Amino acid sequence: MSSVGTRVFVARLAGTIVFDPLGDQVGRVRDVVVLVRPKGAPRAVGLVVEVAGRRRVFLPLTRVTSIDGGQVISTGLVNMRRFEQRAFETLAVGELLDRTVELVDGSGAATIEDVGIELQRSGDWLVTKLFVRRRTGGKGGLLRRRGETLLVGVDEVAGLGRAAEQQGADLLLAQYEDLRPADLADVLHDLGTRRRLEVATALDNERLADVLEELPEDDQVAILQGLELTRAADVLEAMQPDDAADLLGELPDEQAAELLELMEPEDADDVRRLLAYEDNTAGGLMTTEPVILGPETSIASALAHVRRQDLTPALASMVFVARPPLETPTGRFIGVVHLQRMLREPPHESIGTIVDTDIEALPADAPLLSVTRRLATYNLLALPVVDAERRLLGVVSVDDVLDHLLPEDWREVDEGDEVAAEPTGTRRA
């Protein structure tokens, strides 16, 4: 059991494993929910815990029996309903870290780097300490070393209850640097609109592009519209062309055209071609950047190409063989070479000797149902799309098809029923 006076810092708590009383793992702590009050110390009321299926749920601190030794012990009762932040709640990791506050002794501003919560005799967990980094000179003109860190009481700062005009996100992102894009997208989705944009802005272009591809459309549009135009164009260039086209298709025509003009011509041309097709056709579903090689390419070289980190497993499953030019639209499409076949053949052989020419390519106007049937019938992960001259236009992969077959809000729907759940009712204990 946690004893009175136990102090825990939330940045260190993030990622901690949560166990039930029998020692079974429930999930991992991702954040702490805090109520910042006009008077008195802020009160921590619960943990945001990530459970199986990447779902984030609320665990009241009244259901926590111990926070000690790098683990959290719960009573075993966890409501599996997805956590939804309320307007009066603040996420300690997501919203307090990097926030700028004023030191009440008049010595200037400081940035919060960690938040300490402490167990009281009443059983409440209160925010009692803040670990901050000074941002200005010292009091009364006495200059202090810039970047000095201090552990201060929560009553020694002002401005904790309001967001700064612009809040950094370095510390928050440090907590989640190892998350996959889909998991980081879940974190962003759970943040408030303003904080979501602040965090998204702090990501580099490649990382933000990967995360945008995993977010619901409304979040994608809000983030892209919140970026400076040149930055938005750079992020679109870093996205897969089909995903960039889908996102631009959600924007007003005038704004989409402006962004296309700011993109590199080669990237913009790929996206424009995709925008010309209907959404639920092979042309609207395809990507223009599969692995395309000439028939003279060695198997060893082809295997090196499919090792590209930016390739999805579906696109890495085969190489598409065509005559020059090898950029879409290519020269005449010849066929495909399967990854498994390449692994069984001598690496010095050319891929032209093992081309599978039996796979029937799709026309760009093939409807979604036809694409789905073809993938299922032949147990394929990707299919070529060609024009009337049999030039390769792009490739439809199974993940693109799934995105269009699932409900539009599938990224926001929980993945199962409640397990060991409390009765439906208010979330607060």
Automatic annotation (TrEMBL):
<feature type="domain" description="CBS">
    <location>
        <begin position="355"/>
        <end position="415"/>
    </location>
</feature>
<dbReference type="Pfam" id="PF03448">
    <property type="entry name" value="MgtE_N"/>
</dbReference>
<dbReference type="InterPro" id="IPR058838">
    <property type="entry name" value="SH3_actinomycetes"/>
</dbReference>
<dbReference type="InterPro" id="IPR000644">
    <property type="entry name" value="CBS_dom"/>
</dbReference>
<dbReference type="Pfam" id="PF26205">
    <property type="entry name" value="SH3_actinomycetes"/>
</dbReference>
<protein>
    <submittedName>
        <fullName>CBS domain-containing protein</fullName>
    </submittedName>
</protein>
<dbReference type="InterPro" id="IPR046342">
    <property type="entry name" value="CBS_dom_sf"/>
</dbReference>
<dbReference type="InterPro" id="IPR006669">
    <property type="entry name" value="MgtE_transporter"/>
</dbReference>
<keyword id="KW-0129">CBS domain</keyword>
<dbReference type="InterPro" id="IPR038076">
    <property type="entry name" value="MgtE_N_sf"/>
</dbReference>
<dbReference type="InterPro" id="IPR006668">
    <property type="entry name" value="Mg_transptr_MgtE_intracell_dom"/>
</dbReference>
<dbReference type="Pfam" id="PF00571">
    <property type="entry name" value="CBS"/>
</dbReference>
